[in-house]
Amino acid sequence: MMQAAWLGALGVALHAVPVLAQNAGVSATVEAASDERRRGLSWSESDPVLRGSMSVPVASGLSLDGAATTLWNSDRHGGADAVLDLGATYARQVGGWRLSAEGRYHLFPGASGQGYGEVGAVAGFLLGPASIDIGARYAPRQSSIGGDNLYLSTAAAIAIPGTPLTLSGHVGRSSGEVRDPLAATRLRPDGRYWDHGVALDWYRGRWFAGLRYAGSTIDGPARTDAGDRLIARLGLSL
C-alpha cells in the first residue's frame, strides 16, 4: 500500500512540476535510476528508484531545495519507503570561484527515528568546458547515525567538445566519531572508508541519460550493497 501511495504521489508531482517550472528561476528534474547510491553505499539495496527534485530561488544567491526518492522498504534506513532531502543553498561567485554553503535534513517516510541533518560547503572553479569542485559535508552527532559523520570530496567534470556528452569523476572519504556502533554502520558500515566513481552523461534538450560506475574501499561482510556497481539513469529537466 505504501508503494502504491508513493507512486501516486510521484504521479501528482510529475503533473505539477511543469506548471511550477514555468516560474522564473525554478528548476526541476524527474528521473529513473537502476540504484540509489550515495557515497558508495546503496540506499535502495541495489533496486531501481524514481526521483524528483526541485530548486526554488527565494533571494539573491539563496534557493530552497527539495528531492524525493523511492527506497521501497530500505533495510539500511529502518524500512523506509522513501527519502526526502530538504534544505537550502546559498551561493556566491567570487572571481573564478563559485562558493556555496548548504544545509540539509533527510527525512525517511515509513520509518521512525531515522531522520538526520547535515551542513556543507563547496568551492567550485570553472575553466572552459571543465569544472573542479572541492567539498566538505558534516552531520553533527545524532543518535540516528550513531555519532557524527564527516565527508570530504573532490570532483571534476568536462563537457566533451562537439558532443552532448559530459565525463565526470569523484573521490570521497567518510569518517567520524562512533557513539553507537550499530547505528554508525548505517552511514559507515566499515568505519572510515573511501568511495569513488566515474560517470558519462548525455544531454539533449531537456532530456538526459547516463551511466555511472561507483565503488568503495569497504570490504568483508560490510561490502553488501557497497561493492562495485554500474548504474544507469534516464530523466527530464523542467
Outline of this structure?
The chain has 238 residues and is mostly beta strands. 10% of the residues lie in helices and 59% in strands. It contains two helices and 14 strands.
Outline the secondary-structure elements.
Layout: H1 2-21, E1 27-33, E2 37-38, E3 41-42, E4 49-59, E5 62-74, E6 80-94, E7 97-107, E8 116-127, E9 130-142, E10 147-159, E11 165-175, H2 181-184, E12 193-204, E13 207-216, E14 229-237
Antiparallel strand pairs: 1-4, 1-14, 2-3, 4-5, 5-6, 6-7, 7-8, 8-9, 9-10, 10-11, 11-12, 12-13, 13-14
Overall description:
- With 238 residues, the protein is mainly β.
- 22% of the residues are buried.
- The chain has helices spanning 2-21, 181-184, and strands at 27-33, 37-38, 41-42, 49-59, 62-74, 80-94, 97-107, 116-127, 130-142, 147-159, 165-175, 193-204, 207-216, 229-237.
- A hairpin with a 5-residue loop joins strand 5 and strand 6.
- The radius of gyration is 18 Å and the shape is globular.
- The strands form two sheets. The chain has a twelve-stranded antiparallel beta barrel with strand order 1-4-5-6-7-8-9-10-11-12-13-14. A two-stranded antiparallel sheet has the order 2-3.
- The protein has one domain: Beta Barrel (Porin).
Give short descriptive properties of this protein.
disordered N terminus; 238 residues; 10% helix; Porin; mainly beta; two-stranded antiparallel sheet; twelve-stranded antiparallel beta barrel
